[in-house]
Amino acid sequence: MTRARNCQHRSHSRREFLSAALAAPAISRLPIINRTLIFTSVHSGATASRDITISSPNGKLHYDLLARRHQLSYGITLRKQAVIEPSVLGFIVDGAELCEGVEIGKVDTYQLNDAYTTRGVHSEAVNHCNGARISVQHSKSNTNYTIEVRAFNDGAAFRFILPGHDSQRVPDEATAFTIPGGSSVWFHDFEGHYEGIHKKKEISEVKTGEWAAPPLTVKLPNSLGYASLTEAALINYAGMGLQADGQRGFKIVLGCRSETSCCTGGDCRNNHHALASGDCRRRSKHAR
User: Fold this and answer.
1) CATH number of the domain enclosing 184
2) CA nearest 253: which of 225, 212, 195, 192?
């Protein structure tokens, strides 16, 4: 605790904060929950060896959870065109990659359709989605956890949920987002925290190691529209940064890899990664 308190008095740029993360992982107690927003509607009845498709209420957006060769990955399509190409899911606890060597179990599905007042360009937000809670077991460590997905007509959300534990644990994340070829992206790094100037690049021009602070905005090819990848509903969990792999992908790097703790009491809920289609420029959707 002394070490964590001392860190509060140090001055870091956002870039330094995330870069330092590579050296000293953070310690957490209690449940860990990971997050992400994408597009889909729900089909249930999956078994340990089947892929799972979750679709939006209007059936145009699909989130595919892929369990192939015992490695979890996912992809997102809108009107049968890729928004996120097949990408690796990465959820790490105490050094164990919990998305490798897994078996998928029970799938519980549900629906939400409500509205609530909000601020901004509209006074009411609509929360209309299909959802699924997917039970997963990591075979080597015998760890059971849940992947929760919510699929909206113009966006989606996913997160990992790991039940609480009495001992200290070190969480991390390595989920990737592979952008379709021919896309343009707007982003800035961590200079100025979240107030930097966004610059436009073709996705093919983004180099290995470049940082992006959310939101990352994407113009998709073939007139499919725009997408935005960002965070939402961050509760007792580290914020994310995105680091390019030079192959049209961005990988999550958690700020909590520095010297402070990722989780402090109660459930740790990863912030949702938000990916919204062009429709979301007119109307906001929130996963809760």
Assistant:
1) 2.70.98.10
2) 212
